[in-house]
Design a protein that fits this description.
This protein has helices at about 1-45, 50-60, 80-85, 100-115, 135-145, 160-165, 210-220, and strands at about 70-75, 80, 90-95, 125-130, 150-155, 170-175, 180-185, 190-195, 200-205. The protein is of the alpha+beta class.
């Protein structure tokens, strides 16, 4: 009787092992089929539509920075993508009636350029006004006399200004104030552009001084 029970137990174990073996084989075959189908879809270009749309969406989700623009410097020179190429540059938006952020940024950049010494000659700095209505060439020339002479102020027509703002995927908007006046709300960061006009990051004036200096040195390879 005991021998019969033992034989029955062995038979059940063998059946279970056989079943598990068949399951393992089934899983392996299934995964092989999945891999073969996926490879065929990839090679033939028949990727599922939702995947193609997802890939297209990922390519266009980040706004391009560094598109064409053309403005006039406070010294009367035409400045555009072509004239800036060949040398890294820093660009930021502001206006002369700005009460704090704009002059503070200009003074900070002047200070950083002083500390960098000869390295500061290896890049350009462009201050782009978002208020061409009030910031005339004469106004900008007087305003820039308080900062490093290598920093150029750029202005254009309202249309050219909007093109420049969009070229950096930036933001600028007129905000009415009391008495019929207005101020300008705008992007405050400083764009870091390489010698090919490619966007390399943002210089934040709230960052530690050493971080800002390092970013500029990395930009120019110093």
């Amino acid at each position: 009787m005991q021998i019969q029970h033992a034989n029955m137990a062995e038979s059940q174990v063998e059946k279970q092992e056989h079943l598990l073996k068949r399951l393992r084989i089934f899983r392996i075959v299934t995964w092989l089929l999945v891999v073969i189908v996926a490879a065929w879809l990839f090679v033939s270009g028949n990727l599922p539509r939702f995947r193609q749309e997802e890939m297209a969406s990922s390519r266009t989700s980040t706004p391009a920075i560094g598109k064409p623009f053309e403005l006039i410097s406070h010294q009367g020179a035409v400045v555009n993508n072509a004239t800036l190429k060949g040398k890294p540059y820093l660009a930021f938006f502001g206006f002369t009636h700005c009460p704090d952020v704009c002059p503070t940024t200009l003074f900070e950049l002047t200070d950083l350029m002083t500390e960098l010494g000869p390295v500061a000659d290896r890049f350009n700095v462009a201050f782009i006004t978002v208020d061409p209505e009030r910031d005339t060439g004469e106004m900008l020339a007087g305003y820039m006399s308080s900062f490093d002479t290598r920093i150029m102020a750029l202005r254009g027509t309202p249309e050219q200004t909007q093109t420049a703002v969009k070229a950096f995927a930036a933001y600028a908007r007129k905000v009415p104030t009391d008495g019929g006046n207005y101020t300008m709300d705008h992007t405050a960061g400083v764009y870091l552009m390489d010698a090919d006009g490619e966007f390399k990051g943002i210089l934040d004036m709230h960052e530690p001084r050493e971080v800002r200096l390092k970013k500029i040195r990395n930009l120019v390879g110093a």
